Amino acid sequence: MPQTEIRPEIVALLCDANFKHFLETGTWSHRDGRPFSKKEQTLIFQATRADLEELKAQHSRYLEYVRPYEEAPEAIQRFLAPFMEQLEEKNEEKNLGNAHEIMTEDERAEFNRLLGLMSDHPRPFTAYAF
């Protein structure tokens, strides 16, 4: 009977595999460039459909986690546009300090959240973290 249970050790190796290097060198390696040991190579080739589906699910969750970081530059521009228009109408100098002054408390919180996303970096993809 085929094994259908997810094996965390194999999923962890799959999450840390650098597939580009596998194609170029014919050997598996970790994302940091370290080659897989013979034991890791043997283990990775035992991956089942369930293990691969778990990898896919984890990677999908990671992409959802990263999306706000990737979208932050455009989101902050869209968010600030109405404030910049208000400042132009008042013939005030166009700067973030003045825009910040006309924001409500909730708007400042959203601005700070978006700014935080732009200044922070998302955590790297890691098995069972997302």
Poorly predicted runs: none
Query: How far is the N terminus from the C terminus?
Result: 31 Å
The Cα radius of gyration reads: 23 Å
Strand content: under 5%
Order of SSEs = HHHHHH
List how many beta strands DSSP finds: 0
The main sheet comes to: none
Fold and architecture overview:
The protein has about 130 residues and is an all-alpha fold. Helices cover about 65% and strands about 0% of the residues. The protein has 6 helices and no strands. The chain has helices at about 10-15, 20-25, 40-45, 50-90, 95-100, 105-120. Helix 1 packs across helix 4 (about 50-90) and helix 4 (about 50-90) packs across helix 6 (about 105-120). The longest helix is centred in the middle third of the chain and has 41 residues, at about 50-90. The protein is elongated. The mean pLDDT is about 85.
Secondary-structure topology with pairs:
Layout: H1 8-15, H2 19-25, H3 38-44, H4 49-89, H5 96-101, H6 105-119
In short:
This protein has 130 residues and is mainly alpha-helical. The chain has helices at 8-15, 19-25, 38-44, 49-89, 96-101, 105-119.
Q: Which key features would you list for this structure?
A:
single chain; 6 helices; elongated; 0% strand; mainly alpha; 130 residues
